[in-house]
Every structure is written in C-alpha cells, then in structure tokens.
Amino acid sequence: MNKLFVPAFAALALAATPVVAQPTDILNASYDIARELFDAENAAYTASGATVTVNQSHAGSSAQARAILEGLQADVVTFNQVTDVERLVEGGFVSDDWQTEFPNNAAPFYSFPSFLVRVGNPKNINDWGDLASEGVQVIFPNPKTSGNGRYTYLAARAWANEEYAGDEAQVEAYLTKLFSNVPVFETGGRAATTAFTERQLGDVLVTFEAETLAVTKLLGDDQYQPVTPSVSFLSEFPVAIVDKVVDARGSRDVAKAYLDFLFTPEGQEVAAQNFHRVQEETVAAAHAETFPEIRLVTVEDEFGGWDQVASEHFADGGLLDKVFINQ
Amino acid sequence: MAKPAHPAGEIVLIGLAFVFAALVLAVPIALIFAFAFREGAAVYFANIFERNTLHAIWLTVLTAIVVVPINIAVGAALAWLVTRFRFRGRQLLISAIELPAAMSPIVAGVTYLFLYGAQGLFGPALQTAGIQVMFTPLAIILVSLFVTAPFAARELIPLMSQQGTEDEEAALSLGANGWQMFWLVTLPNIRWALVYGAVLTNARVMGEFGAVSVVSGTIRGQTNTLPLQINLLFNDFNVTGAFAAASTLTLIAVATLLIKSVLESRQHA
Predict the structure, then answer these.
(1) Which residues form the signal peptide (chain A) (predicted)?
(2) Regarding beta strands A277-278 and A109-111, do their DSSP bridges make them parallel or antiparallel, or are they unpaired?
(3) How far apart are the C-alpha atoms of B106 and B136, rounded to whole Å?
(4) Does the domain formed by B41-105+134-268 have CATH 1.20.120.430?
(5) What is the distance between the alpha carbons of residues B171 and B173, in angstroms, rounded to a whole number?
(6) What is the pLDDT of residue B268?
C-alpha cells in the first residue's frame, strides 16, 4: 500500500510543480523603417537553429515606447534612438544599466543622416551647405515627431558649427534657411521616403544612409543616387530587454539569446546586407565597398550627451524652435 | 396630357451624373483591381495568401462577426426604449447614442487607451488580475463596438418614431404576449432599417483605421486588421500587395451591398 502510495504522491507533486518552460515566441517592438531588416534578421535567426518565433511590431520608436508603457507585451525593443529606451528606463520597464548588457553600448548597428537625390544629381547637392541654397527643396521628417528628423537636425547643426566656427548667429541663419526649404514635414521616416519617391516631392531626401541605399537598390539606380556628405551624426540603433515583460513571461533567456544573435557575425552580416553599418571587423571589411568613408560626430563630443540635447535643443522654446519657424 | 420626352437639359444633367459617378466611384475602384492584378493573378493570390495578410483578413472578419450582432441587438433595444417610452433623460440618452458617431475615431482610440492601458483607469487592476486587454484582438473588438454603436439605432429611431405604437397595441389587445408582438409585429416593420444598420455597421467595423491603430499595437500576424495591413504594405513599398489586400476589403463591401439589394428586391417582388 505504502509502496504504491509514494510514487503516486511523487507523480502528483511533480504534476503540481510549475514547469519552467520558456515561451516559444517573443515580441520585438521596433522602429518604423526597420521592417525589411528584421524580416531578414529573423529569417537568419531561424536558419541558425533557433526555435523561437519572433513577432514584429513596427511604428515610430517614440510611439512604441509609449505603447510599451501602456502595456504592449514586447520582450525586446530595437529602437533607433537612445532617448526612447530611456523613457522605458524612467517607466521602470528597462534597467538603467541596459547599455552595458550588450557590446557597443547595446547598439548592434548604426547609420547616420545621408542624402538621396534624383539620378544625375541635377541640383548638384554634395554637402549640408547645398541644402540651404535658393531653389532647393529638401525632404526630411518632422524633428518634433521623428527620431530620424532629430538626427538630421543635429547632423546639419554639427556641420554648421564647424563651417561657421561656432558662430551661433550664422549657424541659426543656415538652419532657418534649411528648414524653410522643406515643403512638407512628414511625421515619420518612411512617410518622408514615400513623399520623395511616390509623390516625387523635393530635390533631396535626408534620411538614414541605410534607407538611401535600400531605396536605391529597390527602386533602381537609374532613378536615384545616394550622396554621402562630408560629415554626419552617428546614429546608433540601441537594443534592450524589457525586464518587466520578460520577468512576467519568463522569457528572459530567449529574449537575450535573440538580441545576442544580432551581435554575432551572422547577425551582423544580415544587417550589413540590409545597408546598416556594423562594428564587427570582418563583416565591416567585407562590405567596405558598399559604405563610403565618412567622418561621424557623436552626441557626447558635439552636444554633451542626450540629456543636454533634450533640454537645450528639443524642449519647447529650445534651439530647434528658433530655426523651425515654418512648423 | 402626354408626358414630354426628356428635354435636352435633362439628358445633359443625367449624362453628367453618370460621368461624375464614373470619375468619382468607378475609376478608383477599377484602379484598385488594376493595381492588384498588375503583376498577374499568381502574384495576386500569393499576396492574398501571404500569412500576415490572411491573418489580417481573418481578424477583420472575426471583429465584424462579434461586433455587428451585438450592436444590432443593442441598437434595437435602445431604439425601442427611446421610441416606445417617455422618461426623464430620454433626450440625453438619444444624444449619448449619437456621441461616438460625432467624435473622431482617434479620440475613441486614445480614450480606450486611457481606460485599459497599463497607466489607465482600469489598466492596473486588470494587470493585477493577469488580464491583457490593450494591444490584443479584444481591444480591437471593444473599440469597434464603441465606434459603431450608433449606426443601428440611428437607422431605427426615426423609423420607429414615425411608425408609432398602433400596430403593437393592436397585437397586445388581440392577446399577443411580449415576444409574439416583437417577432410578429415589431420586427417585420423594422427589418429593412435593421438590415441597413447592419450593412453600415459592418462597413465601418471592417474599414475602421484611426481608433484601431491606437489600440492594436500593430503586431504582424496578430493584431493587424486589414486597413492596418494595407497601410503597412503600402509603407513597405509593396504597392501590389497593398492593393491586393485592399481588393479583398472592396470585394467584401460589394458583397454586402449585393446581399442587401437582393434582400430588398425580394421584399418588393
């Protein structure tokens, strides 16, 4: 009797123990124009033997941060701006040392604002100064709503700071001219691209180099050509684990394994094939022909960090508002 | 007195009406199908049967299957209440029914976010209970219920006030009970308004973009409805795919209208 009872009891106890199984799917909340990139990354991740399904949600990265604060169950974020991850840190969703959890400040790839012009470059646009010329129409997304647009503003200002040796009046005059050359400010990066390509607005599109190269490949180099300016602004695309979600779902290990993959040579190769620049040396060397040389300034060197940028430039009544008079 | 033949002016005006209808209605609809099929039928069906588009079609149909019957039933009950009874606050109730139709869908979406979002009114309690509403199909159904709540009642209230209560009182005086009166007298009187209310509700549920986009979370293959999927495909430079998805939405709309016309013609036959 007792001999029968013990195994039965053990079986019951086993059944009652919660099985610590990792979920078989995770959600990656990502920015607007990263759809093609993560379609490719996720396919490569599956091909590498991973069994987890990675679902994708794409929208402006500020909108995604807000959705996560409101309960969107994203296990990981892959954003195009550090400030949007910081909003999750403030909300208690991401630990404040997230940038040390992965290499390169947790940025598996980077890009920078660059130019796309119509083939033959009829307006002869080669650098930031040309964007403020009389009769040139420039398309870039609204810096008030788009990280892409904020990067463009900062890149143009970095160029002007050097060009005018820090003379703030001249810098502001240049930026005011640049902004008044924009016929319409779209709310996001992809909308700006479709305004330039589908609606044929403007002479030059300013957006991430990744987008300019992808558009040229997709729509044909008989129609568009990328132009690399002399200097631009380093735009790192950070990734982070959403602690609050993975702790609730028990998905931390699969979430981390997925983000780790983005830093492996395979993951980096996929990013480079999709026109994102990477740090991994052998992959970067293999794709050197795709990516022209460029000097990139960083937010720390040029503007004293993201906090200072937020308060000096992007706050209401800040430096952006002084030059963005046609908003 | 013989009727005069169509005078020239009348013919010109009728002709103009046809030209206008062709330009404003027929050409855009034809264009949807022209673009959807511009790379051939094989690509068209590959686009329709793409996993995420197929899911978007299913989610949109599911939402309509849940929302339309509920809003028809609630609309009929509300219309019954405000046309058959006089009570304090009746006018207020009639205005309240109209409210969702008068307000921008994006406001409806944001309102639901503030109700059920994690930082919203009910969000924290729901989270403690382990119930996820926001960014799930449930949120899409809830917000669709709200946005389309007035459509059935709006069709029914004018008709039911005009018809009055005489038929129903006659039925009751002849010994019918409440259910008999409803099924045999009220329902036949209002069925065309009900069908029209259902057509309008269905069209709006399937086409709603603004409110749904706020509460959806736009997770591919999970919470993208057809309008969201069309927008996404268009932004992905997949114009053919976007129009293929749009064609299914158009076909559903045409089918709904056809069903309505067939039912109507049977009625008058």
Answers:
(1) 1-21
(2) antiparallel
(3) 17
(4) no
(5) 5
(6) 65
Q: Which of A27, A190, A219 sits opposite B219 (nearest CB)?
A: A27
- The residue type of A293 is E
Q: Which two tokens stand for residue B112?
A: 């639901």
Question: If DSSP states are collapsed to H, E and C, what string results for A241-279?
Answer: ECHHHHHHHCCHHHHHHHHHHHHCHHHHHHHHHCCCEEC
Give domain limits for chain B: 9-38, 41-105+134-268
Q: Closest approach of chain A CAs to the CA of B73, in angstroms?
A: 32
Q: Which residues of B touch A69 (CB under 8 A)?
A: 118-119
Question: Residues of chain A whose C-beta is under 8 A from some C-beta in B?
Answer: 27, 32, 35-36, 55-59, 67, 69-73, 190-191, 194, 197, 218-219
Residue of B nearest to A93 (CA): B118
Query: Closest partner residue to B218 among A57, A71, A190, by Cβ?
Result: A57
B241 contacts B165 by C-beta, under 8 angstroms: no
Helix (H, G, I), strand (E, B) or coil at A109: strand
pLDDT one-digit tens code per residue, A221-246: 999 999 999 999 999 999 999 999 99
Spatial CB neighbours of A97, under 8 Å, sequence gap ≥ 6: none
pTM of the predicted structure, to 2 decimals: 0.82
Q: How many CB pairs under 8 A join A and B?
A: 52
Q: Which CATH number fits domain A113-233+294-323: 3.10.180.10, 3.90.930.12, 3.40.190.10, 1.10.443.10?
A: 3.40.190.10
| Least Cα separation, residue A276 to chain B (angstroms) | 17
Q: Cα separation of B157 and B80, whole Å?
A: 8
Question: B186-215: per-residue pLDDT in tens?
Answer: 899 998 899 989 999 999 999 999 999 999
A27 contacts on B by Cβ (under 8 Å):
219
Which residues of B lie inside 8 Å of A (Cβ-Cβ)?
113, 116-120, 123, 127, 132, 134-135, 217-222, 232, 234-237
- Secondary structure, 3-state, B200-233: HHHHHHHHCCHHHHHHHCCECCCCCCHHHHHHHH
Give B30 to chain A, closest Cα distance, Å: 20
In angstroms, rounded to a whole number, what is the distance separating the alpha carbons of residues A286 and A275?
13
Q: Do B132 and A73 touch (CB under 8 A)?
A: yes
Domain boundaries, chain A: 24-110+236-286, 113-233+294-323
pLDDT (tens digit, 9 = 90+) per residue, A255-312? 999 999 999 999 999 999 999 999 989 999 999 999 999 999 999 999 999 889 989 9
B118–A70 CB contact, under 8 Å: yes
Where does A24-110+236-286 sit in CATH, by number?
3.40.190.10
